[in-house]
Every structure is written in structure tokens, then in C-alpha cells.
Amino acid sequence: MFLKLGVTAALIKGEAGVCAVVSDQTTEGNDRTPGYRNRRLKILGQDEIEEIYGLPRFSDEERELYFSLTPSEEAAIIEELHSTKSKTAFILQLGYFKARRMFFIFTAKDVTADLNYVANQYFPDTADPDCTISKRTRLKHQRLILALYKYTICSDSDRQYLEVKAREAAMVSGKPIYVFRQILLEFEARRLTVPGYSFLQDTVSQALIFEQNRLAGILKKQLTLSNRQAFNELLDEKSGLYHLTHLKRDPRDFSATEIKREIARGAQIRDLYMLSQQMLPALEISNESIKYYASLVGYYSVFRLKRFEPRTVYIYLLCFIYHRYQQCYDNLLVSFIFHVRKFVDAAKAVAKERVYEYRVEANQNLRKAAKVLRLFTTEEIDGDAPFYEVGCV
């Protein structure tokens, strides 16, 4: 149960880190490379890092949950530990491991509230609770906890396995947060302690670099000179405006002028869309990755894109064209639906008005009909009177 309470909750919140990741795609030393070589990738915000890697800050209810001991844990304390300080430190470390699946170095000052709770709960006769222990004792505690929960420290072979899994995840989605989450799930599945954030940053970075190199290698073989020229034209400036900047724009409304412009955008990239339909299956990337790489074109300015590695930009543009062309005709379909509904609503409004006018006219005719019927029932007119005499009544 403890596996789901700490890290998994932070992973859900980690989705907020997606946007922050995009801003760190370029490197600090070489802005032409949208890889991750000279600067560690920013995957999580500071609050999210603290939630996963920071020393837990428990509420009263959480202390009761995490510092409660099972029979096997109590047996380990009795059999392996002797001093009160060692037992106190062990219970604290055990509670933090349950919450984070990692070990911490802390002092009594760092964990005052937790220390007092453990002392009152398990060692009420201790006048001055303390958790200061030696490094040797701390390592002993770690071995006991690993044995109790059948966890292990991440080994070199585990790291190699995780690198392979990270590459597989990068093929599913190019979002760093997605790859990061998949790696953490692998740690949970293999019952490994969570390593430092820098290790995960490097693993994610290497996986994304590997994936970009794989895609670039495929494009290098399949893109012709004319294909590259067509993509380069999107980055050319014309009358003070880049072609790509024009394509990024969405219709402001459903007016005829805006819809004509959208149709023109679709016509402009039709050939490149046909190319993307041929190329993307060869890249073997998911729809999620296509959307993500397309979003990078929307995020970066044309000026920034022109400073990236050309083959990487071609990947982004290929996904953007594929996504934008479909979006273009989605916009046209939505516009059509909008105008049809507008027409139907207008027709309903006119129909209601006509029905109202008909009812008013019908009510007026009913009053006239009553006068006619009265002529047949009145006793003032003789039954044998000619019609012209009735009309004069």
C-alpha cells in the first residue's frame, strides 16, 4: 500500500512539468542542438522534486500510518537493534522509506515532530529523544529495511535495463515527463530504491537523444533534396512574415474571409501532408509523439527553429504538417457545423414567427366566424329571407 501513497501521487502532479520541459529543449552551450548534452533536462518543477525526493513532512494521520509497525518490523527491531537511539532512528527511516522508497540522512532537528511522535509512541520513558547514529548503524538500518521489503539498490545491470525501457518509452512519447514516469514505474515493478534525480534526468536525456538520432537517421535515408527544400521554404521569410508563422495561425472566427484563408493554408501544405503520410509510418512513432513534436513547432519561434539541427527540425515540421493539415480540415468541418446550426436556428426562429402570425390571424378569423354563425341562430331574421337581406342586417 505504501508504494501508492508517495511517489505515485507525485507522478500525477508531474504532468505539470511538461510545459517546463519544452523550454529546456536547447542546450546551454550550443543553441543549435535541441538535444540535451550540455545541460541537464528540466523535467519536474521544484515543488515536484521536493515531493518525490524531499524529506517527508507528515501530518498527524500520516505519522500514524507510516510509523506503525508490523510484527516482522517489530521483530527486526528487537533482534537486530539494541539502543533506543538506534531503534528510534530505524523507525523514522522505515517510515520515510515507506513514503518515498529511498533513504535519507537527517538529524533530530530536521525531524523534531516525527521524532517526538515515535518517542511518545514506542519509548515513552525516554526523557530526551534522540536519533543520532553513526554511518555504520545507518547502513545497517538500510540493509534491514531492504530485506524486510525485498527491495534492492539499483545495480549496473538494472541501469542498463532501465536505459532500454527509457528508449522504448521515448518511442511512445517524446515528452520527457512521460519517459520519466515510465522509468519510475519500472523501479516500482522491479522493487528498486529510487535513485537520485540527476540519474533519472540523464537516463531520460539519453533516451530522447537516442530517439532523435534514430528518427534523424531514417529521414536522412528517405528525404530527397526536393523534400528538404520544401521544408526549408516554410522557414523562408516573405514580405516580413515566415511561411511557417502564417501556417501556425488559426482562424479567428467563422467568417468567410477566415475560412478562405484556412482553405488556402490547407492547399499550401497538401503536398507536404502527402509526404508526411508516407514518412511517418517509417519513423514508427505514436500519435502522441506526433502531437508532441508538432507542438514544439508551435512553441518555438521560426528564428529558434532555424538554429536547430536541420534533421531535427524536419522531424518537427513533418509532424506539424501532418497535424496541422488534419486540424485545418477539422476547422473547416467545425465551421460548416457552425453555419448549418446557425441556418437551422434562423429557420426555426422564422418558423416560430410564422406560426405566431398564423395563430393571430386564425384567432381574428374565429371572431369573424362567430358573427357569421350568429346570423344562422338569431331570431331577428326570418328563415325564408333572401341572402341579400341577411347581408344587410
Structural commentary:
The chain is an all-alpha fold and 393 residues long. The protein folds into 3 domains: 2-149, no CATH class; 156-221; 226-343, no CATH class. Helix content is 70%, strand content 1%. It has a two-stranded antiparallel sheet. The radius of gyration is 37 Å and the shape is flat. The termini are far apart. Residues 1-37 have low confidence and may be disordered.
Secondary structure: elements and pairs:
Elements: H1 2-5, H2 7-13, H3 17-22, H4 46-53, H5 60-66, H6 71-80, H7 84-100, H8 112-122, H9 135-149, H10 156-172, H11 176-189, H12 197-222, H13 225-234, E1 237-238, E2 241-242, H14 243-248, H15 256-268, H16 270-283, H17 287-299, H18 302-305, H19 310-377, H20 387-391
Antiparallel strand pairs: 1-2
Core attributes:
393 residues; mainly alpha; 3 domains; two-stranded antiparallel sheet; 20 helices; 2 strands; 1% strand
Can I get a quick summary?
By secondary structure, the protein is mainly alpha-helical. The chain has helices at residues 2-5, 7-13, 17-22, 46-53, 60-66, 71-80, 84-100, 112-122, 135-149, 156-172, 176-189, 197-222, 225-234, 243-248, 256-268, 270-283, 287-299, 302-305, 310-377, 387-391, and strands at 237-238, 241-242. The chain has 20 helices and 2 strands.
